[in-house]
Amino acid sequence: MNSYSKSIIPSYVLLPGGEGFATVYEFLVMRFPRIAEPVWRERIELGKVLFEDGEPIGLTTSVQANRRIVYYREVVDETKIPFEEKIIFENDDFLVVDKPHFLPVHPVGRYVNETLITRLRTKYGYAELGNAHRIDRLTAGLVLCVKDRAKRGLYQQMFKDGMVKKSYLAVGRLPIETTRTHWHIKARMEVSEDLFRMQIVPGGPVNSESFIELVERRDGIGLFRLQPVTGKRHQLRVHLCSIKSAIVDDPLYSDYSNLESGDDYSRPMQLLAHRLEFTDPVSNRPVEFHSRLELRRSFASG
After folding, report:
1. How far apart, in whole angstroms, are the C-alpha atoms of residue 302 and residue 291?
2. What residue ranges define each of the domains in the chain, with the CATH number in brackets?
């Protein structure tokens, strides 16, 4: 018998303006093609899809432009992630957490409760806890989480304005230019045709920027320090590929791939969100945090 997991965190969708969809049901089916049509039908028939003010939505409810709807995501037989997050700092306003590899920050895909935010809310009772930024599910390391919804925007704005200094560590194969140790990558990135990967494309305005430093080398692989200026999806992974490197055990951009067989917990992608530095917008004090996690044993994480 299947077991169902229901998210404790609501999902919101803004209905489109103008014409195009006759009903909310039709819009949802087209907006989320990976969710089967009978799933949306069942959710609506069971009263699980509502307008934000609590008004129920039926199969024939018409689209009302720019109105928000709310529902709680559900998945069948959710996979348990066998790694635990660790809080490394906490005050009255925020937490800094070391997120393990494979754990998503927020409900996504086949995960609703096996997420960083849901785990923290459940364990510690922080009903309004939310993330100020995100890192990929396959990336480990530091995530800043804000306790009070009213203050979350202050911390999110820091990241949007580039006021947070972020540093990552990655283990990857050595580039062809073995004598070079520093790169400054500025490029335009767009989604590739398969929709899973990002790619650098010629022309158009630059929308991604990173600094890369090779800090150690050993047995054909290197330890890289990466400092992103922008925050495009998969940016560091793609920028490393642009210098003819690739992160060890990256399932999308390296020679190794496990997309069809699923996660291999013995081979986590060797990318770590290692350092965060910013001025706290509430206390106005400078703070700096370092991850306590490590990458491959052949390299130190410091």
Report:
1. 9
2. 4-76 (3.10.290.10), 86-163 (3.30.2350.10), 168-271 (3.30.2350.10)
Average pLDDT, the chain: 91
Q: Give the chain's length.
A: 302
Closest to 166 in 3D by CA, of 274, 60, 43: 274
Determine the pLDDT at residue 258.
57
Q: Which residues contact 263 (CB under 8 A, 6 or more apart)?
A: 102
Backbone angles phi, psi at 9, to 5 degrees: -105, 125
Strands 74-76 and 68-71 come out as unpaired
Alpha-carbon radius of gyration of the chain? 21
Best mean pLDDT range from 34-48, 104-118, 133-147, 248-262: 133-147
pLDDT digits (tens, 9 = 90+) for 174-217: 998 778 999 999 999 999 887 788 999 998 899 999 999 999 99
pLDDT attached to residue 38: 92
Helices (H) and strands (E) in the chain, counts: 5, 16
Beta strands in the chain (DSSP E): 4-6, 11-14, 49-51, 68-71, 74-76, 86-90, 94-99, 130-131, 140-146, 165-173, 182-191, 198-201, 208-218, 221-228, 271-279, 286-290
The candidate with the shortest Cα–Cα distance to 291, out of 150, 133, 85, is: 85
Region 274-286 average pLDDT: 98
Q: What is the dihedral of CA 177, 183, 189, 194, to 10 degrees?
A: 40
DSSP character at residue 206 = -
pLDDT of 297 strictly over 80? no
- Is the pLDDT at 302 greater than 50, yes or no? no
pTM of the model as a whole: 0.86
Task: Tell me which residue of 213, 205, 133, 145 sits closest to 180, measured CA to CA.
Answer: 213
CA distance 163 to 178: 33
256, 155 Cβ separation under 8 angstroms? no
